[in-house]
Each structure stands twice: as C-alpha cells, then as structure tokens.
Write a structure and sequence with these properties.
The complex is a heterodimer of chains A (50) and B (611). The two termini of chain A are 22 Å apart. Chain A has one domain (2-38). Chain A has helices spanning 2-14, 20-38. Chain A is 64% helix and 0% strand. Chain B folds into three domains: 2-131 and 339-362, Nucleotidyltransferase, domain 5 (2-Layer Sandwich); 179-332, ATPase, nucleotide binding domain (Nucleotidyltransferase, domain 5); 377-600, Carbamoyltransferase, C-terminal domain (DHBP synthase, Alpha-Beta Complex), CATH 3.90.870.20. Chain B is 36% helix and 18% strand. In chain B, the strands form four sheets. Chain B has a nine-stranded mixed sheet, sandwiched between helices. The radius of gyration of chain B is 24 Å and the shape is globular. The chains are: A mainly alpha (50), B alpha/beta (611).
C-alpha cells in the first residue's frame, strides 16, 4: 500500500495535479462508504468511464 | 529481448509476444475462454504466446500494459468534478469499482502474472505502461511497411485522448496533436449505435452495414446540433445531447427530442428510421475522417498514412479515404481495436522506451495477421478422433478439390487452417466460405449458419492478382478493411421497380455476378488473398477460379452470432455440428455433415448471448 501511495503521489506531482489530492481523499471517503453500503461491486456497462 | 504486451480489463483482452522487435505471437483472450469481448486478465493468451515463442515465463524481460490507469482515473475525477452534482449516480457506481480494483491495476497485474506464470519473479519490476493512443499509434506505424508516415488514431476514449495525430520516422514516433474526452468521434458513433438499438462496442459494425439501406436525411440535424466540425477535421460535440459523461447511457432525452423518438429497443424491429440514422452518422464520420486526413497531409507533407483505433475499423470510411487520394498509400492495423493495443504497447516499449532500432522492411510486419495458435495434422486427427468426429485425411490437393466441389454445389464450408487470425476479422484461417455467385447464399448463411440479422452483408475473398477485374480497387486489402464497389461491368442494373424498393427489400434483388457479397449500394468489404501470406487459401480460390472463372468467394468468420471466432478443432467441430455448415476442412481432414453421428449435434441457436 505504501508503494501505491508513493506512486500516486509521484503521479500527481509529475502531472502537476496536486490540486486533485484533497478531492481524492474526499472521494476515497465517499467511495468507501458506498462500498460498505453496497456490499458487492459490479461495473456498469459503459466502457468510456469505467 | 522478449516483450509481452497486454491489453485487459475494459474489453477485448489480448496478449502479444515480441522478440527483438519481431512479432512472434498474438491472440485475444476471448478465443480461449469462448466469451466474446472477454475483458479478464488474458492468462490463456499469455500461455499461448509463451508456448509459441518456446520460452518460459522467466525469459520475459518486460511486460507492457496498453494504457495508464492513473491517468484514466484522473480523467474520471476531473469529469465528475466538472459535471458535479449531476453525475452522482454514475459516480456511485464507478467509484467503488475503481477504489476496490482498477486503481490498483499494477498490483493486480503483478499478482495475476504471479498466479498464471511464476511465483518467483518480481513482476512489478518488469511491468511498464504505455499510453492508450500511443499504443494504437505504435501498432499502426511500427507494424506498417512504411519508413515514414503520418499516424491517425481514433476511438471512443483512452485515458484522455480520443483522436491523435503522430509522425513516425524510422524508429521514432512523435505526437503532433490530440483531441480529448469528451469530444470523441468514436463515442458519437457509439451513441448512434446505442440509439439504433445495437450494443455499444460490438454493434458498430452492424450500424455501418445498415447504412447503405438508408438515406442520410439526418446529416443536417447532426451537423447543426451534435457536432461542430472545423475545416481541419477537429471537432467539438454538444454535450447537451449525450449522457455518457454523467449517466449510464450514451444519449439522453434531448437526443430523443432532437430525433423525435426514443432509442430502438435491442432486437426490436428495424425500420427505415434506423437505416437513415445509420446512413447519416456514416456520412458525418466520413466527413471528419476525410477533413482530418486532408489537414494532416497539408501540415505534415507525409504521403503515407497509418490508421488504428476502433474508428479505423470503419472500412467504408477507409475506402473513401483511399479513393480520395489524399495520401498515396494508407495502411490500417488489422487489430485496430483495443486487442491491438497489446501489440502496440509491446512495440512502443521496444522502440520508444528501450530505444531499439526498427528493422526496415517493404512489407508489413503482421504476417497476414496469422499470429494465433495452429495445430499440426497429427494433433488435429487426434483431437477429432477424441470427440468422435468422422473424417477422411486427404492430400492437400484432394482436400482442395473436395472443398471446391462443395462450394460449387452451394454448400457452406468451415475452413480451419494454419494459425488463427489476430484481430476481429476472419481472413481465411478460421472462416466459413461459400460460393459468392449464388443468389441465395447471403440469406442462407445469415439465417441458417450464422443465426444473425438478415440485413448483414458478407465480405469477399478475392485473389490479389484479380482484384481490379472485379472491384474498383487496385491495391492490397489483406485485412478486409477497405470497402470498394463491385466493378460496373459485373453489376446488374436494377429495374425502376427494384430501385424504388426501400430498406431490406432491396436485399433480395440480384445486383451483380457475385450477389452474395454485393451490398445494396454495390459495395463490398474486400479481402485480397496473397500467395505469400496464405498459400493454401490462395490455392483454394485459384482452383475455384479454374473451374468457375470466378476468383471471388464469400468469407465470413467461423462462428455464430455472439460467439468468438473458433480457435481449436474442437470449437470448429462444435460450430459445424450446431449450425447449417455442411462441410468442414480442418488441416487436411475433410468432414461432411452426413457422415457425422447426429447425437453429437448440440442446440447452438441460443448458446451465446446476442451481441
């Protein structure tokens, strides 16, 4: 997990997208709640976004 | 140096093995798992590639994935942010998938490799990522016969890019410009695929096949409301009419209101309206492609063009592009969709990341796209015996005689020979073939063999040396990616009454000397057959020509609707026994339906989910 966070941080830095970091934390929180609420995870069919 | 290219997790998973820049093997996972467009990790395709390359897993130096998940996630977040709070439903469905799974793709791929191949190797250290459109561009340029070329890639969307223009020179490939999501020609075409009741990602072909039945009466509406096309071919979509940024469908209520009706229900009745919509979006697509090509030619001065990405599978647009003579030569990657991304990822790593030189060649590097599994005669016989098939092993000459005789008798023949094709088209290795001169073949093949919609046209295989005598085409089209008209002297004029027919009624009118492959507008999706890439198929058609005077046969993929193209002799036998195919040739084994044990037939009509 540490390696993943480091890679994600490097990615945001190189792409000059550090402003996305707080949003990412917020989305992880909301997404986490959604996962807890849903139980199972099924990808919807439209491939463009998913 | 062995490089393994992978595409997976969205649609059409595939693997490709590159050795010192040479393509050793490539295959789509669906062919092994028998699940169409299978998106799962391509473990079977990888195993096949290693087997074909006679290497074990530890000898793979690099694994290259065909797109960059972090950049894709960045696009997702920024899109939701831009449209918030409108996209909450879509967000609530996609975020859990990403947070649980897709965001950790590097770890997922490494652990899949560990499970499928070898526990001891640190796969993460060997894993590289290539951008989606760079993978497409690399698959088009490095596999092409050109030393220098402009490269145009167009698809739904990769990470951000939906259209890209690059220049390839020797071993270099540099990006010139891009169009970004949500403005996408591929997604516009898919929106119409959805609206006309076909499945996004597989029904685009059907929409293209439907277009000649219609009149392009909606072109003005599309240009005025949906897409703003600039003179240089760049474009801007009006997102007011589309739902794909925030919702779970392609189009929305405004789109319905614009075209005065709701989307057709899947499998509902096809009307003239859907045909007119298909004709209209085809015209708009061609306009964008031609304008883009013109501006690329003007700004780069290049005389060669390479194409890849899903939109490059629109062979009607490709044919128009060729005939426009904007470029002297065009070359289209046969696996232009995401499966080909596996090949492009490996090629881009080899030339761009590892800086290896490209070997010059005046032929393309795809080996006719025959890059998949093959079976020796001994193996075929053993496999057929094991499943109870009754067959005769013949000499090649005798087999060809039997097959040609069956074709002339009007039979549908299963033709399973040599290495399987890579890419969506069957090119005479896993094909169903028939006599193109027969006026009943199109209907019979569609309804009794392929179990698919009766409006869909079939494509011809023609000897390369004879192509210009039968079609308005005088260039190679080995991958069935160019549409050209049947030559005027082979066409049959329609009566006034026949000309006034609408839609599918036109299908029953005999329009040429080869009606089975002549579409209602006299066009055909041509495959030229070359002696050097598929000698046995070439000999077959040559013999057919000797006996009939016609060097053209029908070639359609060896499968039924919704089924992946057959891979093994067992797949071929199953399809043969479950459909109206009357004769089967696998290697030099000849099988006729009459000789088979009828209890081996399975009900095939509903065996696969409709595509």
């Amino acid at each position: 997990m540490n390696e993943f966070i480091r890679e994600l941080w490097d990615f945001l830095r190189v792409r000059k997208k550090l402003w996305l970091a707080p949003l990412l934390v917020l989305m992880v929180a909301i997404g986490g709640l959604l996962i807890l609420a849903q139980g199972s995870v099924i990808a919807p069919f439209i491939y463009t976004l998913f | 140096m062995n490089i393994l290219g992978l595409s997976a997790y969205y649609h059409d998973s595939a693997a490709c093995l590159l050795r010192d820049g040479e393509i050793i093997a490539a295959a789509q996972e669906e062919r092994f798992t028998r699940k169409k467009h299978d998106a799962r990790f391509p473990a079977n395709a990888i195993h096949y590639c290693l087997q074909a390359g006679r290497i074990d897993a530890t000898e793979i130096h690099h694994i290259v994935f065909y797109d960059k998940p972090f950049v894709k996630f960045e696009r997702l977040l920024e899109t939701y942010l831009a449209f918030a709070p409108r996209g909450f439903v879509s967000f609530s469905k996609s975020m859990p998938v990403w947070l649980k799974d897709k965001l950790f793709q590097k770890a997922t791929i490494a652990s899949e490799l560990k499970a499928a191949l070898c526990q001891e190797v640190d796969w993460s250290a060997r894993l590289l990522f290539s951008e989606h459109h760079l993978s497409h561009a690399a698959s088009a340029f490095y596999a092409s016969p050109f030393e220098d070329a402009a490269v145009l890639t167009m698809d739904g969307v990769g990470e951000w890019t939906t259209t890209s223009v690059a220049i390839g020179t020797g071993s270099d490939l540099s990006l010139l410009k891009e169009i970004h999501f949500p403005h996408s020609l591929g997604l516009l075409y898919s929106a119409f695929t959805y609206y006309t009741g076909f499945k996004v990602n597989s029904g685009e072909y059907k929409l293209m096949g439907l277009a000649p039945y219609g009149e392009p009466r909606y072109v003005g509406l599309i240009r005025d409301h949906l897409i703003d096309i600039k003179d240089d071919g760049s474009f801007h979509l009006n997102l007011e009419y589309f739902d794909y940024c925030t919702g779970l469908t392609m189009t929305n209520g405004s789109f319905d209101a614009l075209f005065k009706g709701q989307a057709r229900r899947p499998e509902g009745r096809l009307t003239q309206r859907e045909m007119d919509l298909a004709a209209s979006i085809q015209v708009v697509t061609e306009e964008v492609v031609l304008k883009l090509a013109k501006s690329i030619r003007d700004t780069t001065g290049q005389s060669n063009l390479c194409l890849a990405g899903g939109v490059a599978l629109n062979c009607v647009a490709n044919g128009k592009l060729l005939r426009s003579r904007i470029f002297d030569q065009i070359w289209i990657q046969p696996a232009a969709g995401d499966a080909g991304g596996a090949l492009g990822a490996a090629l881009s790593a080899h030339h761009l990341m590892l800086k290896k030189r490209r070997k010059p060649s005046n032929k393309d590097h795809m080996q006719g796209a025959y890059l998949g599994p093959e079976f020796s005669q001994q193996e075929i016989e053993a496999r057929l015996s094991r499943i109870g098939a009754r067959f005769s092993s013949l000499s090649e000459a005798a087999l060809i005689e039997e097959v040609v005789r069956s074709l002339i008798e009007g039979k549908a023949v299963g033709w399973h020979q040599g290495r399987m094709e890579f890419g969506p088209r069957a090119l005479g290795a896993r094909s169903i073939i028939a006599d193109a001169r027969s006026p009943t073949v199109q209907k019979t093949l569609n309804l009794k063999v392929k179990f698919r919609e009766s409006f869909r046209p079939f494509a011809p295989s023609v000897l390369r040396e004879d192509v210009s005598e039968w079609f308005d085409l005088d260039s190679d089209s080995p991958y069935m990616l160019l549409v050209a008209n049947v030559r005027a002297d082979k066409q049959m004029a329609m009566t006034l009454e026949q000309r006034q027919m609408f839609g599918i009624d036109k299908l029953n009118v005999q329009r040429s000397a080869v009606p089975a492959i002549t579409h209602v507008d006299y066009s055909a999706r041509v495959q030229t057959v070359h002696r050097d890439t598929n000698p046995k198929y070439h000999r077959l058609i040559s013999r057919f020509k000797e006996l009939t005077g016609c060097p053209v046969i029908v070639n359609t993929s060896f499968n039924v609707r919704g089924e992946p193209v057959v891979c093994t002799p067992e797949d071929a036998f199953r399809c043969f026994m479950g459909t109206g195919i009357e004769v089967l040739a696998i290697g030099d084994c000849f099988l006729s339906k009459q000789r088979q044990d009828p209890t081996l037939a399975t009900d095939y009509t509903n065996a696969y989910e409709l595509d």
